[in-house]
Structures are given as structure tokens and as C-alpha cells.
Task: structure prediction
Amino acid sequence: MRTIGQLASAARVGVETVRYYERIGLLPKPPSLHDGWRRYPDSVLQTLRQIRQGRQLGFRLAEIAELFTGGRTASCASLQAAAYAKVVELDQRIEQLKLQRERLMELLGACPDAAGQADCAAIKQIGWVIGGNK
Result:
């Protein structure tokens, strides 16, 4: 059994994170004991670690809540489906970042020797680079 500070430290999260997860229902609120302190069982530490791992993999809290509700772990099929959806989402973001990088490189190449010039070709082109009107 751990206090909230001990629990947060062991899970490498802040105390306010633990309280927030309690407020939104990801963690159960333990009852206060006779000394006024709430003590958390080791199962809560495991849940906190699962939440942290899910966040590191890019899952949103709502997605984590769907997968791990009420101390119940998701089925293998539902976890695989969620992971696959996350991979598709990441692939889309990677493509968007590649396009953004390409457009920035075009912008940089538009005026390579214009340092300090008031009439910079890159500034004139920025409208179509950002707006996509190429």
C-alpha cells in the first residue's frame, strides 16, 4: 500500500496526474483510512504503468480508457485493432510531415542567396507553399 506521493513517484508521474486520472475514472479512488491518508494497492501502480505505456505509444486517454476499463484488460483482438488503427494514424502523420518538409525545402531553395534582401523570392512564394496552390 502506498500514499499518493509514493504511487506517483513509483509510476514516474506527478501527483496531479494521479488525481486527474481518478477524476476521469481511469483510476479508482481508494477510501481514506483512519489516519486520513488514502493508500493505493499495487494494482493501481500496475494500472498507472499501463496508462503511461499507452501514452508513450501514442494512445489518447479515451482510447486507453476503452482498452482498460474497470481493471479489466482488453481482449487481444481489441488491442490489436487499436494498435493497427494507431499505426494507420502514424503513417498518415508521417506522410503529412514528409509533405511539410518538402514544402519547407522548396521555400529554402527559393532564395538561397537572399540574406538580408528586402525583395526575397521566398517571401513572395510563401503564400503558395503554405496554401498549397502550387
